[in-house]
Amino acid sequence: MSWTRRLLATGALTAGALVAAAGTAGAHGAMFGPTSRVAACYAEGPETPKSQVCKDLVAMSGTQPLYDWNEVNIANANGQSRQIIPDGKLCSANRDKYKALDMARTDWPATAVTAGTNTFNFRVTAPHQGVMTLYITNSGYNPTQPLKWSDLDLAHPVAQYATGRTSTNGYYNVTGTLPNRTGRQLVYMVWQRTDSPEAFYGCSDVDFGGTAAAPAAAAAPGNPTEQQLTADAAKSTVAYHDHGTAAAPATLATAPVALASDSGSSAALLGLVGASLASAAVSGVILYRRTRAAATA
């Protein structure tokens, strides 16, 4: 069963349940399909992790990074991710709190994938306008070495998606194309907001198969359940912050868009901001005309 079908099998999330799960400590989100490292370990249970890698994560950094699974971010990235995140620190976004996510090893839970068109599912607890870009590692990627920017096929993103202030049942569903690969690879996500300098990051381990068994076999990752998110909401230390966001403008289209390959592209970000402002302006004109008409009626 594909990761999309597994997610849909859990049932649609209502708007009321989304608010309850987020609470006052909700933040922004993480990849649930293919499952990101932080989401996979959180799903195992921060207090009782099952896999050795997740046990080691808790031993290194404690349980709080898992309860704060939706906050692997940099508040002031401002489209400069490749300049401010050094090699070897991509999965943690160079944050000490999440440093265990950078562990270079072959036993991270990995999602089985195949080349071709795929739907990527991002569990969002606070939708933001922005650009979500997904990259795949190069064919020569070695999971036993720290992840570097040069390990990613930056020239050919798997997908790029304009995110809006609304989501579908708590998810952004992004269509992309995986190239031909074999063995263990990694999908790297950069979600740069266009309504603030903030950006979010995630590493999802995947397995294309076609090679001998890995030295340390890894089970398929699970995903956090909505019941788990609701029960643990009070344990999160992440508060909502808009980082300078103004009042909600018009919602962006939720279809994949053709953008520059660099997630930090100023042209791409300015283009989306310009589109949002134009949409807001049109909405303002319509509202003005309706108000004037009502006043003169």
Structure description:
The protein is an alpha+beta fold and 297 residues long. It has eight helices and nine strands. Strands 2, 3, 5, 6, 8 and 9 form a six-stranded mixed sheet that branches. It has a three-stranded antiparallel sheet with strand order 1-4-7. Strand 8 (184-193) and strand 9 form a beta hairpin. Helix 2 crosses helix 7 (226-232). The relative contact order is 0.20. Mean pLDDT is 78; it is low at 8-27 and 243-297.
- How many alpha or pi helices? 8
What proportion of the residues form beta strands (DSSP E)?
A: 15-25%
Q: Which regions have little confidence, pLDDT < 50, spanning 5+ residues?
A: 8-27, 243-297
The CATH class is Mainly Beta
N-to-C span: 59 Å
- From N to C, what is the helix and strand string? HHEHHHEHEEEEEEEHH
What is the total tally of β strands? 9
- The name of the CATH architecture is Distorted Sandwich
- Helical residue percent band: 25-40%
CATH topology: Coagulation Factor XIII, Chain A, domain 1
Radius of gyration, in Å, reads: 19 Å
Structural class: alpha+beta
Coarse shape: globular
Whole-number average pLDDT? 78
- In CATH, the homologous superfamily goes by the name chitin-binding protein cbp21
Q: Profile the largest sheet.
A: 6 strands, mixed
**Overall structural domain count:** 1
